[in-house]
Specification:
Alpha-Beta Plaits, 2 domains
């Protein structure tokens, strides 16, 4: 164990809360990092990631995975991370987008349903895995399974589509790594659109506002791909867009979005940055 003393903390930041930008993971990661510095606990970064996840799981009550905390603590400038959330094996890859940039479109819908719905999805996919393991004991996780295995064993249509989405998304992620490394931005973007469609129709964690924003850019020649991000039911969409087209897209989409939903769309250009660190 570790011994902590009392401390005073002031929290400030510019990460939008409820926007699918992992503000809770950023807070948890910075707190555990600060306590490690203050009390000389000697924790390595992976251990801090695990403590941050425990805060979310055991205190907040959201049975989330470890990805958000991992990215918050382990991020590196101009790099992306390929992470195996089971083993915590990871690799850094240069994030070189050429003429493209990452643009976030904030629906301004707070994902208040995300916590309970996320727990439901965890239960549904765990049930699907349990059913498959009865016939295919070698299947330890959904990434090990095939869609044919699922069609053969899972009768509940809701559980079935949840599990199919997870397995297909696993394959898309691996393909996305190859596409980005090879500069195949159109192929990478197409996978982003397919991911959003899966999140919306199969995993059912999107919302009308996010679906609208993705559909609005689907046929834009300057946008390679788009999808929702975060826990769902609101938050942001992430768009892979040509840099010189950003201003034009914002000018076009902001009034259309306000007319449709009565909400002021916020926009952010995002880049990978270094993870949790001491600033003073």
């Amino acid at each position: 164990g570790h011994t902590l003393g009392g401390f005073n903390a002031v929290v400030t930041g510019d990460i939008q809360v409820g926007a699918g930008l992992s503000s809770s993971a950023a807070l948890e990661s910075s707190i555990v990092f600060g306590l490690n510095e203050m009390f000389g606990l000697g924790l390595d970064r992976i251990t801090m990631v695990k403590f941050a996840q425990k805060a979310e799981n055991n205190f907040v009550g959201m049975q989330c995975g470890i990805m958000d905390m991992f990215a918050s603590v382990m991020g590196k400038k101009n790099m992306v991370i390929l992470l195996n959330c089971d083993t915590l094996e990871y690799k850094y890859f240069p994030f070189e987008l050429g003429e493209y940039k990452v643009l976030l479109l904030d629906t301004q819908v707070k994902h208040s349903l995300a916590s309970s719905a996320y727990n439901d999805r965890r239960k549904e996919t765990a049930e699907g895995l349990r059913i498959m393991k009865a016939r295919y004991p070698q299947v330890e996780k959904l990434a090990d399974a095939t869609v044919d295995m699922m069609l053969e064993t899972i009768e509940d249509p809701v559980v079935l589509k949840r599990c199919i989405y997870v397995t297909e998304e696993h394959q898309r992620i691996l393909g996305m790594v190859d596409d980005l490394a090879a500069g195949r931005f159109s192929a990478a973007g197409a996978k982003m659109f397919r991911t959003h469609d899966g999140l919306s129709k199969m995993y059912e964690v999107s919302c009308p506002e996010a679906d609208f924003l993705v559909d609005e850019v689907r046929n834009d020649e300057n946008v390679a791909g788009a999808r929702m991000m975060g826990g769902g039911f609101g938050g942001c969409t992430i768009n892979l867009i040509k840099a010189d087209a950003i201003d034009g897209l914002i000018k076009r989409i902001v009034p259309v979005y306000k007319e449709k939903f009565g909400l002021e769309l916020k926009t952010y250009v995002a880049v990978p940055a270094d993870g949790t660190s001491r600033i003073a």
